[in-house]
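**Fold in C-alpha cells:**
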Amino acid sequence: MKNKQQKIGIILTNLGTPDTATASAVSRYLWQFLTDPRVVDLPRWKWFPLLKGVILPRRSKKVAQKYQSIWTEQGSPLLEISKQQQTKLQQYLIQQDINAVVELAMTYGNPSMEKAVQNLLDQQVDQLIVLPLFPQYSSSTTGAVLDAFADVLKHKRNIPSFKFIHSYHLDEHYINALANSIKERMKSDEFLVFSFHGIPLRYENNGDYYREHCKQTVIAIVDKLGLTENQWALSFQSRFGKEEWIQPYTDVLIETINQQQAVQKIAVICPGFASDCLETLEEIEVENREIFLNNGGISFQYIPALNDSKDHIEMLGRLILSQLES
C-alpha cells in the first residue's frame, strides 16, 4: 500500500436528482440530463427544440408528481442516501488508517463534479480516485461520469495523479453483499426478478456492453444462491421514447409472468442501483407492484438497494483500498 501519509481524495459519484420535487426543478434537471449526448445522441438541431418545446413541458409536471410521492423531510432519497454513504465510507477509511477525504458528486444536478473536484484540490490531496456508483459499465452512465470529470480537469493546472474505477460488476464483495441481502429477505416460494436500468438497443449495437455486465452479475449471484433456471429472470426497466431498448422489459415481464409461468409471488431486486431512487421507490415499488397485482399476482416484494448497509460500505471501501495497493 502507498504511504498512508498521502492524502487521498475520493469522489463518490451517482447520476443525480432534482433540487426540489417541483416541476421547474425537475425541468432544469432533465434538461441537463437529456442534453448530454451520452444519454441522448440525436443531433442537437433536431433534439433540443423537441426537448424544450414539447417533452419537458409535458413531462416535468408528471415526473415532479412522482418525485413528490417519494420525497422525504430530508429531501431527495437518492441524495440523502448518498450523503450517508459518503459519511460512512469516510469513517471506514479512517478506521483503516487511510488519510482520505470523501466528496460526493452528481453527474447532473447538485452537488456538482466541479465542486467536488475543487474541494479536494483546495485540500491539496496527493491523489484522486473517482468511484462511479454504477457497478455495470455503460457509456451512458460511467462514460458520462468520465466526461464530467475530464471537463472539470480541462480548466485546472494543478492536477494530481488520479484513478478512475471503471466497473465492479463481478467484485466478490459486491456479489456477496447482494446475495446476503436476497437471502435475508426473499421467501422460499418467491420468484426472483433482477431488474436493471435499460439502454437503447442502438447503443448496444454501437458497442456498449452493459447488458453483458448485467448478465455476468446475475449469473454470479444466482450461482452464489444456488437458484435454478425456473426461479429467476433478468429484465430491464425505465425505457424512454419510441425506439427499441434492450429486452426483456421489466414491466412487460411482470405483467405476463403469472400467465406464462404461473408465478404468483415475486421479489424484485435492482442490482445496478447503488442507492434507492425514483426508479426503484416509485417505478418498481409502486408502478410495477400495481402491474403485477392487477394481473393475477398475489404478493410482491421489492428488495432495497444496498444503500448505506455495512456490507455495501465495506465493499466500497475495499474497492478504494485495492486502488491504493495497485
About this structure: The mean pLDDT is 96. The beta strands are 8-17, 100-109, 127-132, 161-164, 191-197, 232-237, 265-269, 299-303. The domain at 172-303 is CATH 3.40.50.1400 (Rossmann fold).
